[in-house]
Amino acid sequence: MPLDLEIIESAAAMQARARDLRAAGKTIAFVPTMGFLHAGHLSLIEIGREHGDILVASIFVNPTQFGPGEDLEAYPRDMPRDLALLEEVGANIVFTPTPEDIYTPGFQTYVTLEHLPNRLCGLSRPVHFRGVATVVTKLFHIVRPHTAVFGLKDYQQYVIIKRLVKDLGFDIRIIGGPTVREPDGLALSSRNAYLNQDQREAATCLNQALARADQMVKEGIVASRDIIAQSTAFIEARAGTQIDYIAIVDPETLEDVAQVDRPVQMALAVKIGSTRLIDNRRLNE
Fold first, then answer.
1. Which residue out of 41, 128, 141, 146 is catalytically annotated?
2. Which residue from 6, 31, 74, 231 lies 20 to 30 Å from 90 (Cα-Cα)?
3. Is 73 exposed, middle or buried (0-12, 13-18, 19+ CB in 10 A)?
4. What does the pLDDT look like over 129-159, one tens digit per residue?
């Protein structure tokens, strides 16, 4: 077990530790995770270290963001490995609560946003962002960070958290960490562990479709429906793929845009076998 990494398991103990750190004049940077860490998570830790005296990471597989039939029980976990990686990358504190500590008996208070979750991933995962918004709100109250870092691979989540912080008046700076990719372009994800060799190769079509779309815009093709149609054909040509959505949206409102005549966000979700993967890219930046 790591010797220099402070491990805090209870919400009460984490809140007290955060209160003491703030009283001592320390700034807290926070990176919430669901564990099974990879280089993408570790890049967020490194960003966070630049923006606070103390880096707190959390490891919590949040049950309320999983819908019926999703992979809550199967979600990969490896706490000993995660702790070793966090110590190696220089985290100071790791908060590892239990579901019973976060969602105490009789829990009935949830955080919902009116519009942003009703787009993109929220259409096929209707309870997901209520769970995300609720657990992030709770974690912010417990950890009391000055800065929090979220990966831009989960772009819709990033936009939702920024809106939540603004709407609820949290005095927290939200930083987006760039997507980290494999050498072949596949965005790092804990769910990549579900893929077999053929599926892993097929999964590269997500980033390839985004790159092709970016090239189309550079060549003057700016109608979103044309870009989406060609991207759909490209992905569906790969065996074992099933498109959830491909969308080109406003980067802040996530509303569909008809023309790529300004910076926009292209986002997609594709099932490779039974594994649902997401990716996104800024077009016309």
1. 41
2. 74
3. exposed
4. 999 999 999 999 999 999 999 999 999 999 9
The answer to whether the beta carbons of residues 251 and 195 sit under 8 Å apart is no
The amino acid sitting at 268 is L
- Which among 177, 178, 241 has a CA at the least distance from the CA of 209? 241
* Distance in angstroms (rounded) separating the CA atoms of residues 8 and 138: 16
Instruction: Say if pTM beats, i.e. exceeds, 0.90.
Output: yes
For the domain covering 190-280, report its CATH number. 3.30.1300.10
Which secondary-structure segment (H or E) carries 108? none
What integer best gives the mean pLDDT of the chain? 97
172 close to 125: Cβ distance less than 8 angstroms: no
Q: Where along the chain do its domains lie? A: 6-177, 190-280
Has 41 been annotated as catalytic? yes
- What sign has the CA pseudo-torsion 205, 209, 211, 215? positive
Token readout for 285 is 């930046």
CB 134: neighbour CB atoms within 10 A? 21
The rounded distance, in Å, linking the Cα atoms of 283 and 20 is: 44
- The H or E element spanning position 268 is strand 264-272
| Cβ-proximal residues to 4 (8 Å cutoff; 6+ apart), any chain | 87
Residues recorded for the chain: 285
Residue 78 Cα distances to 12, 37, 85, 156, angstroms: 24, 8, 11, 26
Contacting residues for 236 by C-beta, under 8 A, at least 6 apart: 243
Are the beta carbons of 111 and 133 closer than 8 angstroms? Answer: yes
